[in-house]
Amino acid sequence: MTQAMAVNDRGADCTRIGFLLIPDFSMMALMSALEPLRSANYVAGRQIYDWTLITPDGQPARANSGIEMTPVKSVADFDFHPFVLVCASIDGQWFDDRATFAWLRSLDRHGARIGAISTGSYPLARAGLLDGYRCTIHWEFLTSFTEDFPELEVTGRLFEIDGSRVTAAGGSATFDLMLHLIAEEHGHDLAAAVAEQLIHPMPDEPDAPQRLPLTQRLRISHPKLITIIEMMERNLEEPLGREDLAMEVDLSTRQVERLFTKYLGKSPARYYLELRLKRAHLLLCQTSMSILDVSIACGFVSASHFSKCYREMFDHPPRFERTPRPSAIAS
Question: Running along the chain, 331 residues long, what does each successive block of 10 average in pLDDT?
């Protein structure tokens, strides 16, 4: 059977997947899911996957890139779908639609496999469908998601498959998830052929880190400096003193100062402060936490000091992040 063989009618083993598009969904996450399925059909020479685009109201869904996708169905048009993936993006954490949540819960009661890509984990969590399951989400939302849903087991891995729940962090992690699912259903050889067809490496292990290593992110390789920065990133709520940081890598505080100045152009204190303020920015934008709670979560001793530092870095006070602003979506 040649790879170029045309796709015929659906076979008995065709897997049906519904993609529920939340407004302002991630186009990259959606395409990273659809293209491996399309390629799997092409490589297999028959239709082993079939998909449907669904929106809450049946109206076209606009991606965060401004591109509109025309759905085939609304949630009201489906009594049952065997596998549904919720696709969202930056605004996924604010989606709150009772009819959609009820539909997802009905699918679950009837034995459907349910999952999420990118920030689609937010709607699933709000629907109560991640209770008792491991799940993941894009690294940028990891802190705010765990703040909003502290009872959930959130791993931060590239993707999670736990029983009838499937979640992926978005972006290329979605591609890795789909290759894993293809291998799970149709074997490693087909998944490898799909990866090769789309010039994509075989998937990373699910527990591979989502973010680039610090050495690549900062373009530095000094091991002791990397260790200090890793310690800073792990201790934002209760910042470590400069003596503690220096002691961990067996350097003097003066030597640490010189390392930061040489490689990063700023003092350790300034770098640490900026890390905490960037975390605060995410929490202010992604959660409903009070400004006081955000300041405490980011290691500030008072709200006034936090506001002063925040204004100096972002040129506006923390409360500005809570002011509705025009959409950034291209017209």
Answer: 36 84 93 96 94 92 89 81 92 88 95 95 96 94 90 93 94 92 93 91 70 81 93 94 94 94 94 94 86 93 93 93 53 29
User: Whole-structure pTM over 0.70, yes or no?
Assistant: yes
CATH of 214-322 among 2.40.10.120, 2.40.160.20, 1.10.10.60, 1.20.1250.20: 1.10.10.60
Strand partners, 167: 116, 160
Three-state SS across the chain?
Answer: CCCCCCCCCEEEEEEEEEEEECCCECHHHHHHHHHHHHHHHHHHCCEEEEEEEEECCCCCEEECCCCEECCCEEHHHCCCCCEEEEECCHHHHHCCCHHHHHHHHHHHHCCCEEEEEHHHHHHHHHCCCCCCCEECCCHHHHHHHHHHCCCCEECCCCEEEECCEEEECCCHHHHHHHHHHHHHHHCHHHHHHHHHHCCCCCCCCCCCCCCCCHHHHHCCCCHHHHHHHHHHHHCCCCCCCHHHHHHHCCCCHHHHHHHHHHHHCCCHHHHHHHHHHHHHHHHHHHCCCCHHHHHHHCCCCCHHHHHHHHHHHHCCCHHHHHCCCCCCCCC
* Residue range 10-197, CATH number: 3.40.50.880
pLDDT for the residue numbered 1: 33
